[in-house]
């Protein structure tokens, strides 16, 4: 058989979309030979036609908690990936109660990255899909199960320059914020290049601008409120450069990130008088941060290796004016943080129910804090070296429609790790869990977690900072006073022991398309717990009387809020999550009189997921392909064909750097696509694959090379995958009966053949439909208790006996919803905090504090003017205008004492001095 034209080979890539190729090596993907619907890494210039699943999606036996495709992302109206991550927080936040490990574990195209800085400034238009997975998936990437996993799939070809200007101010005035940002991003099959410059400036907000008065003891001064800031004057300048290079031949990829940040702030704490001269009490902070990160990914035989490093140096100076003399005190800190992590993921053992997934991780971290304070005779130096190693093993016990399939799919997960800390010695951890899918739409998880955790070096060694004249409510006297609050580190902290349970259920609702309902129950027990920032309360003063200073008359003078160790804590949390997305309105009919589905043009998996028949389930339909090809090739040679007939990824391959069709690429595609030999040669490929057994020798070299292992032999799993894809198409010739996508498990499983969303971008083009999304999470705190010593009293924080963190509400809710239609968008963000209480001391004059519930709504209205006004060129193309209203209904939390009065320290104007907040955002892409 003669060598096929390049485009004919690209058509064979429809079948090859199930194989994890070299460019996607970092996915947690079992090579079990089952169709994963993942496109291959192809040679530059090759046009890829995909089915439901797009390259870079994470394939795992646990379904995602939430999924968002390109059209959903457009409905967010965000300016960067960082905005998108903030918007999906209801789904991406950890469900382990107070155990959340901060940000999720981030992947780009299924590949672990070195740092969030590497991609946070990318424009959201570069995203093809976002997937959110539960905490258990983090273990397979070498992380503890206290963070969810967010996988961001980028478009294969993208280029833009983005300029943005934000102007914001509260309704009541007194304060303003502006931000200017310039971003360059280019994505190709060979890598990514990104530069970003961001400048953010905020003006100060003083107490007098919110109607406060503060009597002064200085002669001639009646009110110090103009010299006391509720919000400091601040400036932040940040520059970022990111570079990613992928080697298509070896599948290796290298990424580099460099970030430089300068932050300045100025706060006022009142007035001082020295020698008859009156001047403001200022606190001036300056922080310079230099960060570098890198990552390297590649395969080593049957193992996928990922190596990351992240180096951060932060230099901080805080100047605090002295109250009773000229000059100021100076607190300086110099922090080095170096984090290195290596993981190896492989599938060394085959069991009847599938392959055993194994992850080895090794980490070497180093952190050093040097701090000096003119109020102390000696400086503080603390250094920690952390060496960690761990292993995670996922063992398939039963497989749906396979071994023990009567019970569905069942997987057991085990992990163990140890670490040696230079300042704490050896610490250990282990987890064990079960992941069970009794049906395709229901997934259940149970996990036991035991960990030893050292306090952070910052908790041990932060420099001491005294803040003067801080408004505080005295729970003993019931008065509001101005006290000195001390923060910093505590070198006497102990290592914490955690013993937790987590149970979860993830149900894809059969009666509501593209909707998932998540329930999580977390039971957390800990001993020797570090409370990083204790808050003042009657319970706190009772537990730590040496941390509170009172005058001879009992008046509150000072509070020491440096970290403390708690003997034991216990909490139980129940959370519910609902995530849904879909279309609004009727889709326009395509040129052939058939409605375009979510998957894209007919003939390329554009029908309803899991549907049988031509074009269904993401299968390749030759008849519908011929129809599309005929229309594309009917255009005169002197004119550009109608590219809207092509799938999104085809169109992207034909675009130049300016976003317009490249005449050379279009002509080359026409020459190959419209050749009379193209269809004949592709039929020859199908004939060779779909016989039983396949005629390997009749395959073209380009395909045969992709089927081979490193030793030159044909990989039977890859062969089965490509055969499954092509030979399931209508009319294909094969020895057995073609199986539909649904029979392969393509209907509801999240990782294996689950709905992949919109592989060709927003709706396969502008088909006249709108898009909506809703993400809702509600958490209920069932228990939250603290015990300070063995046999000592138990403090119930839900009942107001709070040691740290302020009043603890029983109910919290987070909502994100959006709608995007015809270039116009609406996004609503809602937060709800339930009622709570802080108990007083019970002594005469003391008072309880009662916190009312609070619901706030943020609104963002935006218009992509080029799309809304149908301007495909000129200045309006890529221009977006956004109007922002935060705290739309000006909600304020009401805090009252036992007599119903609002203490000055809890005045709503202090709790939220900004209130209702307006902004305008101008954004232009070139």
UniProtKB/TrEMBL annotation:
It comes from the Bacteria. Keywords: Cell outer membrane, Membrane, Signal. One of its GO terms (cellular component) is cell outer membrane. Residues 1-22 form the signal peptide. Residues 590-620, 744-766 have a biased composition (Gly residues). This is TonB-dependent receptor. Residues 581-624, 730-766 are annotated as: Disordered. The keyword Signal applies. The keyword Transferase does not apply. It is found in: Cell outer membrane.
């Amino acid at each position: 058989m003669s060598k096929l034209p390049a485009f004919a080979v690209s058509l064979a890539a429809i079948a090859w979309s199930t194989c994890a190729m070299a460019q996607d090596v970092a996915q947690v993907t079992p090579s079990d030979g089952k169709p994963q619907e993942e496109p291959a890494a192809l040679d530059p210039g090759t046009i890829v036609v995909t089915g439901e699943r797009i390259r870079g999606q994470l394939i795992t036996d646990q379904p995602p908690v939430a999924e968002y495709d390109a059209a959903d992302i457009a409905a967010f109206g965000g300016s960067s990936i960082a905005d998108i991550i903030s918007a999906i927080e209801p789904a991406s936040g950890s469900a382990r109660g107070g155990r959340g490990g901060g940000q999720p574990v981030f992947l780009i195209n299924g590949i672990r990255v070195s740092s969030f800085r590497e991609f946070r400034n990318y424009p959201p238009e570069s995203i093809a899909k976002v997937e959110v997975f539960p905490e258990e998936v983090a273990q397979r990437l070498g992380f503890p199960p206290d963070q969810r996993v967010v996988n961001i799939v980028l478009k294969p070809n993208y280029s833009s320059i983005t300029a943005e200007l934000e102007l914001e101010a509260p309704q009541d005035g007194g304060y303003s914020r502006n931000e200017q940002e310039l971003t360059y991003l280019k994505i190709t099959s060979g890598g990514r290049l990104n530069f970003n410059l961001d400048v953010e400036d905020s003006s100060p907000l003083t107490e007098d601008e919110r109607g406060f008065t503060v009597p002064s003891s200085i002669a001639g001064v009646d009110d110090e409120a103009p010299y006391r800031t509720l919000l400091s004057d601040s400036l932040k300048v940040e520059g970022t450069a990111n570079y990613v290079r992928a080697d298509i031949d070896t599948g290796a990829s290298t990424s580099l990130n460099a970030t430089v940040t300068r932050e300045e702030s100025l706060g006022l704490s009142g007035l001082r008088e020295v020698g008859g001269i009156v001047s403001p009490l200022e606190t001036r902070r300056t922080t310079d941060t230099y960060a570098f990160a890198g990552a390297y990914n590649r395969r080593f035989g049957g193992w996928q290796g990922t190596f990351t490093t992240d180096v951060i140096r932060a230099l901080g100076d805080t100047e605090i004016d002295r109250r009773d003399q000229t000059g100021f005190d100076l607190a300086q800190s110099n922090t080095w943080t170096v984090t290195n992590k290596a993981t190896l993921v492989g599938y060394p053992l085959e069991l009847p129910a599938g392959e055993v997934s194994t992850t080895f991780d090794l980490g070497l971290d180093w952190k050093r804090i040097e701090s000096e304070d003119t109020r102390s005779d000696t400086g503080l130096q603390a250094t920690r070296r952390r060496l960690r190693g761990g292993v995670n093993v996922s063992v398939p016990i039963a497989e749906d429609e396979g071994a023990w399939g009567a019970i569905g799919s069942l997987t057991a997960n085990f992990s163990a790790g140890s670490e040696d800390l230079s300042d704490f010695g050896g610490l250990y951890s282990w987890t064990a869990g079960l992941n069970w899918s009794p049906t395709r739409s229901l997934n259940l998880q149970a996990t036991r977690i035991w960990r030893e955790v050292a306090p952070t070096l910052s908790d041990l060694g932060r420099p001491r900072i005294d803040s003067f004249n801080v408004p505080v409510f005295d729970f003993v006297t019931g008065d509001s006073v101005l006290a000195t609050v001390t923060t910093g580190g505590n070198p006497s902290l102990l290592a914490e022991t955690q013993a937790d349970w987590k149970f979860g259920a993830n149900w894809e609702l059969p009666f509501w398309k593209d909707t998932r309902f998540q329930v999580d129950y977390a039971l957390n027990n800990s001993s020797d717990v570090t409370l990083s920032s204790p808050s003042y309360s009657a319970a706190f003063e009772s537990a730590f009387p040496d941390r509170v200073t009172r005058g001879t008359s009992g008046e509150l003078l000072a509070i020491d809020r440096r970290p403390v160790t708690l003997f034991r804590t216990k909490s139980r949390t129940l959370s519910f999550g609902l995530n849904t997305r879909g279309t609004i309105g009727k889709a326009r009919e395509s040129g052939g009189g058939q409605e375009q589905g979510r998957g894209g043009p007919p003939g390329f998996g554009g029908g309803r997921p899991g549907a049988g028949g031509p074009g269904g389930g993401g299968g390749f339909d030759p008849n519908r392909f011929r129809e599309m090809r005929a229309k594309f090739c009917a255009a005169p040679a002197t004119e550009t064909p109608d590219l809207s007939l092509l799938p999104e990824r085809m169109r992207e391959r034909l675009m130049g750097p300016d976003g317009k069709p490249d005449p050379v690429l279009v002509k080359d595609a026409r020459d190959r696509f419209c050749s009379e030999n193209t269809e004949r040669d592709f039929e020859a490929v199908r004939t060779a694959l779909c016989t039983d057994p396949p005629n390997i020798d009749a395959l073209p070299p380009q395909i045969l090379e992709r089927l081979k292992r490193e030793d030159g032999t044909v990989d039977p799993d890859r062969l089965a995958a490509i055969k499954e894809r092509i030979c399931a198409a209508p009319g294909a010739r094969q020895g057995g009966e073609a199986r539909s996508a649904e029979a392969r498990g393509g209907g509801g499983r999240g990782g294996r053949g689950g709905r992949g969303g919109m592989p060709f971008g927003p709706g396969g083009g502008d088909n006249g439909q709108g898009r909506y999304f809703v993400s809702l999470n509600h958490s209920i705190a069932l228990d939250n208790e603290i015990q300070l010593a063995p046999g000592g009293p138990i403090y119930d924080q839900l009942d107001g006996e709070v040691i740290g963190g302020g009043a603890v509400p029983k109910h919290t809710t987070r909502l994100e919803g959006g709608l995007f239609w015809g270039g116009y968008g609406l996004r609503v963000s809602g937060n709800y905090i339930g009622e709570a209480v802080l108990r007083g001391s019970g002594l005469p004059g003391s008072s309880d504090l009662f916190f009312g519930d609070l619901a706030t709504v943020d609104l963002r209205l935006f218009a992509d003017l080029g799309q809304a006004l149908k301007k495909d060129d000129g200045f309006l193309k890529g221009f977006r205008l956004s109007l922002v209203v935060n705290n739309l209904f000006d909600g304020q939390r009401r805090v009252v004492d036992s007599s119903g009065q609002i203490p000055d320290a809890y005045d709503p104007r202090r709790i939220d001095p900004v209130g209702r907040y307006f902004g305008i955002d101008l954004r232009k892409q070139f």
